[in-house]
Amino acid sequence: MTDNTNRIRYLDRLAGKTYFLLGDEACAYGALYSGCDFFAGYPITPASEVAELMARELPKAGGICVQMEDELASIAAIIGASWTDARTMTATSGPGFSLMQENLGYAIMTETPCVIVDVQRSGPSTGQATKPAQGDVMQARWGTHGDHNIIALSPNSAQECFDLIRDCFDLADTYRTPVIMLMDGEIGHIRESVVMPEPLEARFSARKAAQVGEDIFGGSELVPGMIHYGQGSNVHVTGSTHLANGMRDVSTPEVHDVLVRRIYRKIDDNREKIVRVESDIGKDGTARVGVISFGATARPAYGAVKEARNEGVDVDFMRLITIWPFARKQVAEFGKNLDVILVPEMNLGQISREIERFVGCKVVPVSKIGGVSHSVEEITRAIVEIA
Amino acid sequence: MSQLQHRLIDYVRKDSLPHRFCVGCGCGTVLNVFLNAIDSLDLDPTQMVCVSGIGCSSWIPSPYFKSDTLHTTHGRPIAFATGVKIMRPDMKVVAIAGDGDIAGIGGNHLIHAARRNIDLTVFMVNNMIYGMTGGQAAPTTPEGVKTASTPYRNIEPPFKVADLVVAAGASYVSRWTTYHVFQLQKAMQDAMTRKGFSFIEIVSQCPENYGRRVGLRNGTSFLKKFKEQSVNISKAQTMSDDELQDKIVVGKLCDQSRPEFVTELHRLTKEQVEKLAMESES
Amino acid sequence: MDNKDCLDRSAQSSPKKRKKSVESIEIDGDLCKGCDICIEFCPVDVFQASNKLNRRGYYLPIVADMEKCPGCQLCELLCPELAIVITYAQKSDNTETK
Nearest residue on chain A to B71, judged by CA atoms? Predict the structure, then answer.
């Protein structure tokens, strides 16, 4: 839906240069590069900078930015707007993300593409409002009720905030699903250089269009095409269980089974295409210790891996870029010959418990909560001690 | 199968009738009047988006009215509708939902939409109860009534929702009942043609889950009660609070012109786009 | 403006004033739920109760006296089921609610 002229004119001025940006800001610029047409948000530390930059820049690019009365309204507005063929986004942190869960489920059930940025902070509840954490990992997966699947990406630098948010928009369109950008407060507020590419590299939509009159909530394809409001198709969007044509049917068990399983499989069956990890495997097969991490924590974790290697310990390293769907195949492969996997995370072991399910070896969480990220020394010590 | 064709049947989704509303339910009448209003205005349903929440009256547009539809989560139709209207200001966006939905759980969205004066039309069907879930007290249930969630008596005074919306800054607000079908149709037409936030509180009957608790066991007795209880606003203004106790004040509560939110939003974007275009040329 | 007056006026207004004369009034037996609102509120008692049952077990009203109908449209608008189908005469002075 993006008006290319205004957007390209705006992006042209940014293109090909390097900027010194907050992760939050890089994320917002990435959204602009993705043709984000509409942003609705509500202030919350440490995500407010995303909304503030969108408020300043999105109108210049021909889009609309609005501050809604609360987070529920923010996600509701972006879902509604998405059905007008707009690329839409909101940004929040833990407490706001909690408020958004019901409507997140609505977006999943109605297969509405949209992007939700969660810049995680220390919880539960108000917690340490200004301190980083990685405690929303499981919430991103299961925060909303019912059986569902979700895509969540975790950047570990300001550049990745820019790059991955563009992937978020493409994934949202391709799989007709909400996608979560699971940042941590550390990365949201880090300031680093970000290179912005040429606007011709920008893509403003990846939605498959259906023909007017076609079913858009079922059919032979795992991901049906979309028809938007105003095309004369009398599109019927409902969060209730529905038939392929969108009309409600809550009485027939098979209808619910078919719908919910298809929505689940959209992401499950496409893991190969969706899941991304980055790894550094030492001398093949000799390492007995592995480290898996993600987001901000992956930085000291990788530093520690290198330190440990200097001290003579063979360590393999993997960074999860896609948190959900979980990289079970890659993790299983990673852990095949290992005796132990250490998982540094800024929570009490949310990802380590997931890793445990797919490996035969011991999994040791290296948890740190309290709003201060791990140091290289801490993780190095943990590796060396366990080796 | 009947061969009869109602003159407004083309506005209804194929094979969706007979609808599921109870015998004598006001929702059916609201649907009826709504279709008449659309027809009288010669509106094109393909240029409309109907948004609803959760509750019996949210079924009025979904599935019965044939247009682009967004049946959302409880209390949120106005928030969803805002997103639709902002991105498609050319389409007519109408939200139809109940009192519990719009003014209970959705109260926050209601007052802010009115404050912003977003160009939406909201028909709040007020049956003074949470009907769909079996008859629990709503913010609009009169004091003293025994409901499923207030088995002894309701100790809360009810909201005068239309008055609240006027105070919040809406452009057009009126209140009618499902008895006043002619006036309601005219009000719906006015609301849908006014720019800005237009709101109609439609006091309606729920014979099954409210009526039977207060001795109004069918649609007819309810409508007779509405007729009896209604006082036009011009007359109400001359009456005391005591005299207005248990009365339903009907009529147009406000009709004013104010800057409209979506227009201002788009103007802001246009200004920035033009500014950038000028800077790019120089 | 008293509501009672408004409705009484429209109900008692002569066909000339309302400019709408009615050719037929039918009740869709498949849609009617026997709520009796039309019987109760027609100001000139066009409808009457009957013991005619429809397929779904509701007692249908019958059109007892169509000649009395002033074409006020009250029943058509009040009916919660869209079950009252009225055919208006095609007259040049037929300026209805449009």
Answer: A238
Instruction: Check CB contact under 8 Å for B87 and A103.
Output: no
| Domain of residue A31, CATH code | 3.40.50.970
Question: What pLDDT, in 10s, does the model give residues A243-285?
Answer: 999 999 999 999 999 999 999 999 999 999 999 999 999 876 7
Chain C residues in contact with chain B using a Cβ-Cβ cutoff of 8 Å? 1-4, 6-7, 10, 26, 28-31, 33-37, 40-41, 58, 73-74, 76-82, 85, 97-98
Nearest to A182 by CA among A221, A205, A156, A209: A156
Amino acid (1-letter code) at residue A108: I
Q: Does residue B28 belong to the interface with chain C, where contact is any CB pair within 8 Å? A: yes
Nearest to A383 by CA among A293, A284, A322: A293
What domains are defined for chain B? Answer: 9-281 (3.40.50.970)
Q: Do chains A and C touch (3 or more CB pairs under 8 A)?
A: no
H helix count then E strand count, chain C: 4, 4
Rounded to two decimals, the pTM is: 0.95
Judged by CB atoms closer than 8 Å, whether chains meet at B235 and C85 is answered as no
Largest separation between any pair of C-alpha atoms in chain A: 68
Distance CA A362, CA A181 (A): 29
Radius of gyration of chain B (CA): 20
Asked if pLDDT for residue C7 goes beyond 60, the answer is no
Closest in B9, B17, B220 to C40, CB measured: B220
Q: How far apart are CA B170 and CA B200, in angstroms?
A: 11
Listed residues A168, A199, A230: the one ending a domain: A199
Residue pointed to by tokens 């109907």: B50
Query: Model confidence over B226-252: pLDDT tens digits?
Result: 999 999 999 999 999 999 999 999 999
Looking at the fold, whether A171 and A305 belong to one and the same domain comes out as: no
Q: B234 to chain C: nearest residue by CA?
A: C1
d(CA A25, CA A162): 8
Same domain, A149 and A285: no
Domain carrying residue A324: 279-386
B52 to chain A: nearest residue by CA?
Answer: A238
Q: What's the confidence (pLDDT) of residue A286?
A: 86
CA dist., res. B101 & res. B79, Å (int): 12
Question: Among the three residues A199, A214, A237, which one is the final residue of a domain in this structure?
Answer: A199
Q: Does A238 map to a domain?
A: no
| Longest CA–CA separation in chain C, Å | 43
Closest partner residue to C77 (CB to CB) among B12, B33, B230 is B33
Q: Is residue A359 part of a domain?
A: yes
Residue A238: name the closest of A114, A77, A81, A111 by CA.
A111
Report how far residue B192's alpha carbon sits from residue B204's, in angstroms, rounded to the nearest whole number: 20
**What domains, with CATH codes, occur in chain C?**
27-92 (3.30.70.20)
Domain count, chain A: 2
Chain A residues close to B69, C-beta within 8 Å: 234-238
Helical packing angle, B261-281 and B77-87, nearest 10°: 40
**A124 prior amide bond cis, ω within 30:** yes
- Are the beta carbons of A373 and A296 closer than 8 angstroms? yes
Instruction: Write the ipTM.
Output: 0.97
Q: Given CB atoms, is B203 within the 8 Å cutoff of chain C?
A: no
